[in-house]
Amino acid sequence: MANQMLRRRNGDYQIFCEIEFEMKLDPKLPLFYASSTQMEQVMFNLFINAAEAMKSKGMIYIESKARSDRIIVIVEDTGPGIPSDVLPFVFDPFFTTKEGK
Predict the structure, then answer these.
(1) Average pLDDT, the chain
(2) Backbone phi, then psi, for 19, in 5-degree steps?
(3) Strand, coil or helix: 3
(4) Cα separation of 80 and 50, whole Å?
(5) Structural domain total, the chain
(6) What is the distance between the alpha carbons of residues 9 and 50, in angstroms, rounded to a whole number?
(7) pLDDT tens readout for residues 5-31
(8) Is 94 a domain residue?
């Protein structure tokens, strides 16, 4: 389920911009209990944020893997990175650096 969701969300945004996606997805991920709608939204938001930071050109690397009792999803991009003054706040709910939000 996790890999299928990553593939679906990847395809949704890739058609709108010049972004290359590289995926290394573990074919043996275990099933897990979560809201598929919410997890897909999280992935979609990560892809949009990465694309906007890269000015719609660049590469997004996505990896999934199982470790012990966890599923790990890694999303990296070739954008400029998160400024150090913003970094402490990125996991605060509803935090944004976007104008008018």
Answers:
(1) 82
(2) -115, 135
(3) helix
(4) 10
(5) 1
(6) 13
(7) 656 666 555 555 678 889 999 998 888
(8) no
Q: Which amino acid is at 56?
A: S
Residue 82 · residue 49 · CB < 8 Å: no
Tell me, what CATH number does 61's domain have?
Answer: 3.30.565.10
- Domain extent for 29: 2-89
**Would residue 97 count as lying in a domain?**
no
* Cross-sheet strand order for the sheet of 57-67: 18-25, 57-67, 70-77
Which is nearest to 75 in space by CA: 91, 85, 84, 64?
64
What pTM was computed for the model?
0.71
Between the two ends of the chain, the Cα-to-Cα distance in Å is 32
Give the residue ranges of DSSP H helices in the chain.
Answer: 2-14, 36-53
19's tokens: 């972004």
The answer to whether residue 95 sits within a structural domain is no
- Alpha-carbon distance of 4 to 25, in angstroms, equals 10
**101 part of a folded domain:** no
